[in-house]
Write a structure and sequence with these properties.
Distance between the termini: 24 Å
Number of helices: 5
Number of strands: 0
Oligomer: single chain
Order of helices and strands: HHHHH
Number of domains: 1
Structural class: mainly alpha
Strand content: under 5%
Helix content: over 70%
Largest sheet: none
Radius of gyration: 16 Å
Length: 127
Amino acid sequence: MLPLRHRRLWIVLSGILLAGVVFASLQPNFGPRVPANFDKLEHLAAYVVLALWFTGLVVRDRYWTVVVGLLALGASIEVLQGLMNIGRSAEWLDMFANALGIGLGLVIALRVTGDWSRRFESWLNST
């Protein structure tokens, strides 16, 4: 992790973000039906956000740990969805959308947003 002044806060916020994704992914289906395969866009967007969040908290040399961790998270959720039998199903296309989101997030981080947390803290300290 980057040497951040508010390290504990970033860790807590990261835990909340991960808990939210896991909760949303494992709760039973409810509400109105969405168009076919719209959930793939949701997977892609969620994993772009996760990749951008976590690449902003680690040094560039450790981005690979973010990629591996998020792939493991996505795969674990898919396995759990398949085992829980609560109206969710494990789908390879969901995992593909997760991986695509991680890749897109990584590209954005490498080109634009990497190190965002340090810049944010610097901005906070200057105000």
